[in-house]
Design brief:
This protein is of the alpha/beta class. It has 13 helices and 13 strands.
Length: 327
């Protein structure tokens, strides 16, 4: 081949190869995700880490190809709309929420940015979506049978403490999911012939007063209804329950930090699953086309150390059904 032709061919190949070399050196696209937290970062650290682990499993590394903008309400639900609006102004690609208050705030803030519920109480009953199978709009993610699970807790509490005829309900009245839950729990109480007394708390500053009031009302046991503020301060509630000599039942994390019993879904697994929804949305899926998943596995956890502190002997019928027994 003549030298001149060889030079031309070499130049042509260099020109054709130039874009390929440029593409190889181009940094990966960095996705920006918004996270709207209803409580505190410290109270939800383990669950957020489960979500981040789910992202890592799918190849998303913070600081490399994904950035998460965290906004925490610190239990002040009235600040959620402003925080959601702030995430919208940042033009994030997806907003991840947890709980009914945060999800509703995100829904009001945007109709276009996809929203993933890491987990929420009954999403249909609270008006978040019209249907689980066909959510429509811009919201998808995971939900669970919130009213039913709280009714079941009352049954389990009664089985653990058969003498209990006056049961306190510890709840946050600012959480809009309370309506359907109270209906289910009140129906269970009637069938169990149990009197219910509601004790409302909106911040940790009110916990001690609520337990003092329970003692004055001669409550014999306590059922705790899931809420971001209560979950974030589960250890404080467990301590007060033991000091007040009150058997209690609540959410998964509650038994881990000293609560007597818990009956709940496996929240870490659900939070890891939220990463799968985020991945699909970043790859072009439409939230309206992603059916909302419902938790189907429920766990009973019993803390025998706490039972001993309360002088309570747990029935064998409960122990053999428990998925986890904390010694």
């Amino acid at each position: 081949m003549p030298r001149s032709i060889t030079i031309l061919v070499t130049l042509a190949l260099a020109v054709l190869g130039a874009p390929l070399a440029s593409d190889a050196q181009r940094p990966p696209k960095v996705h920006r995700i918004g996270f709207l937290g209803a409580a505190s970062s410290s109270g939800y650290a383990s669950l957020v880490e489960a979500f981040r682990q789910g992202l890592r499993d799918l190849g998303y590394v913070e600081g490399k190809n994904i950035v998460i903008e965290y906004r925490w309400a610190e239990g002040r639900y009235d600040s959620l709309p402003d925080l959601a609006a702030e995430l919208v102004r940042l033009n994030v690609e997806v907003i991840v929420t947890h709980g009914t208050p945060g999800t509703l705030a995100a829904k009001q803030a945007t109709k276009t940015i996809p929203i993933v519920m890491a987990v929420s109480g009954d999403a249909v009953a609270t008006g978040i979506v019209a249907s689980v199978a066909r959510p429509g709009g811009n919201i998808t993610g995971s939900t669970f049978f919130f009213p039913e699970i709280n009714a079941k807790r009352l049954e389990l509490l009664k089985e653990a403490v058969p003498r209990a005829s006056r049961v306190a309900l510890l709840l946050n009245p600012d959480n809009p999911s309370m309506g359907p839950v109270l209906k289910a729990v009140e129906a269970a109480a009637r069938s169990l012939k149990v009197q219910l007394h509601q004790f409302e708390v909106r911040s940790p500053d009110e916990f001690a007063g609520a337990f003092s009031a329970m003692t004055k009302r001669r409550a014999e046991a306590v059922a705790i209804i899931d809420d971001a503020v209560l979950i974030a301060h589960a250890g404080r509630i467990a301590d007060l329950a033991v000091k007040s000599r009150l058997p209690t039942i609540g959410f998964r994390e509650y038994a881990d930090v000293g609560g007597l019993m818990a009956y709940a879904v496996n929240f870490p697994d659900i939070w890891r699953r939220a990463a799968v929804f985020v991945d699909k949305l970043l790859k072009g899926a439409k939230p309206a086309d992603l059916p909302i998943e419902q938790a189907t596995k429920f766990e009973l956890i019993i803390n025998l150390k706490t039972a001993k502190a309360l002088g309570l002997t747990m029935p064998q019928s409960l122990l053999i059904r428990a998925e986890h027994v904390i010694q």
